Amino acid sequence: MQIELRYFASVREQVGIGQERVELPPSIHTVGALRQWLRERGGPWQAALADGRALRMAVDHAVARGDTAIADGCEVAFFPPVTGG
């Protein structure tokens, strides 16, 4: 399964790229599993996507949780929470 990843704001600054296309292992089916798999890259991904870090996720422009399913060709975005004012 191939998906498009997008990183925004401080997440983008930490990992050093704004987007990438990745081929996922067959065992990755949720946003939470994807986040863990990306953390296993180490380095900036481990810090940017760390457990306990306040982070928002979206699948195809809809807010997602860790148990949200992902599918071939989808877009998954990671971004810090924002507040309005």
Nearest-angstrom radius of gyration? 12 Å
Low-confidence stretches: none
CATH superfamily: Beta-grasp domain
* SS class: alpha+beta
Give the CATH topology: Ubiquitin-like (UB roll)
Q: Indicate the proportion of strand residues.
A: 25-35%
**What is the count of β-strands?**
5
Q: How would a textbook summarize the main sheet?
A: 5 strands, mixed
Number of domain units: 1
The best one-word shape is globular
Percent in helix: 25-40%
Mean pLDDT: 94
Q: Tell me, what is the CATH class?
A: Alpha Beta
Report the span from N to C terminus: 39 Å
SS element count, helices: 3
* Order of neighbouring strands in the sheet with most strands: 2-1-5-3-4
Run of helices and strands: EHEHHEEE
Task: Give the name of the CATH architecture.
Answer: Roll
Pfam family, one: ThiS
GO biological process, one term: Mo-molybdopterin cofactor biosynthetic process
Family: Belongs to the MoaD family.
Protein name: Molybdopterin synthase sulfur carrier subunit
Layout: helices, strands, pairs:
Elements: E1 2-7, H1 9-15, E2 19-23, H2 31-39, H3 43-48, E3 56-59, E4 62-64, E5 75-79
Parallel strand pairs: 1-5
Antiparallel strand pairs: 1-2, 3-4, 3-5
